[in-house]
């Protein structure tokens, strides 16, 4: 009989666009022990044919009902790939923006959690005040409005409101208060101190 393969650790960073997820991913890949694969939404969008974009990155609002039925399938494929990597002993870090504000509820987060059943998953909420997100959008060429709530772009407000529902996490970090390196260090220490996170187990229980 061969030796049982040790499972790879999975870290899922969930937050709105420009909340700082990809910067944390870069630090994790560079500084954490072992090999860490990045299987986040941006990677899967790069593989998606242009006519089906934004695909898995479809924002809240139900505005692309033509491609919306594909989104749960794409998420299923992404999470099955994450599971396969972990079962082969590869660590995985994922940056994603989960929401359920589609034309009809899709229950993607609970289904995704079910697909990682039995695997070591740390689910991290990446928070960032909307004012900071707006500043980052300006610096990176994104369309912006005033920082007054009434004039902020509706999609930005939707992301901010919908991405952290239901808010069940093992850990949360705020990138307006901590650098990417400091966020990564909080995550690393959490993995050491609390080796059995439970957020995805609780989310999977919501799957019907």
Order of helices and strands: EHEHHEHEHHEHH
Q: Compute the gyration radius: what is it?
A: 17 Å
How does the major sheet shape up? 5 strands, parallel
The CATH H-level homologous superfamily: P-loop containing nucleotide triphosphate hydrolases
Helix content: 25-40%
Classify the beta-strand content into a percent band: 5-15%
Could you report the average pLDDT, rounded to the nearest whole number? 90
Gap between N and C termini: 37 Å
Structural class: alpha/beta
The strand count comes to 5
Question: What count of helical segments does DSSP give?
Answer: 8
- Spans of at least 5 consecutive residues whose pLDDT stays below 50 are 143-150
CATH class (first level) name: Alpha Beta
What's the CATH architecture name? 3-Layer(aba) Sandwich
Strand order of the largest sheet: 2-3-1-4-5
Shape, per Cα inertia axes: globular
Domains (count): 1
Q: The CATH topology is what?
A: Rossmann fold
What features would you describe in this structure?
The chain is of the alpha/beta class and 208 residues long. It has one domain (10-204): Rossmann fold. The chain has 8 helices and 5 strands; from the N terminus they run βαβααβαβααβαα. It has helices at residues 21-31, 41-46, 70-87, 108-115, 130-139, 154-162, 180-193, 199-204; strands at 10-14, 36-38, 91-96, 121-127, 171-174. The N and C termini lie far apart (37 Å).
């Amino acid at each position: 009989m061969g030796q049982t393969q040790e499972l790879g650790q999975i870290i899922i960073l969930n937050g709105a666009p420009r909340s700082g997820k990809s910067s944390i991913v870069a630090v994790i890949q560079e500084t954490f022990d072992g090999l860490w694969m990045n299987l986040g939404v941006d990677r899967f969008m790069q593989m998606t044919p242009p006519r089906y974009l934004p695909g898995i990155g479809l924002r809240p609002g139900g505005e692309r009902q033509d491609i919306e039925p594909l989104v749960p399938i794409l998420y299923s494929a992404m999470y099955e790939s994450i599971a396969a990597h972990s079962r082969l002993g590869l660590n995985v870090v994922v940056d994603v923006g989960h929401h359920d504000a589609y034309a009809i509820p899709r229950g993607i987060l609970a289904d995704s959690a079910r697909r990682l059943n039995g695997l070591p998953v740390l689910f991290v909420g990446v928070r960032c005040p909307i004012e900071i997100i707006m500043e980052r959008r300006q610096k990176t060429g994104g369309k912006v409005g005033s920082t007054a709530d009434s004039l902020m772009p509706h999609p930005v407000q939707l992301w901010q409101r919908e991405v952290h529902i239901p808010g069940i996490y093992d850990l949360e970090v705020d990138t307006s208060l901590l650098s990417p390196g400091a966020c990564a260090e909080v995550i690393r220490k959490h993995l050491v101190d609390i080796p059995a996170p439970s957020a995805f187990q609780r989310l999977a229980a919501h799957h019907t």
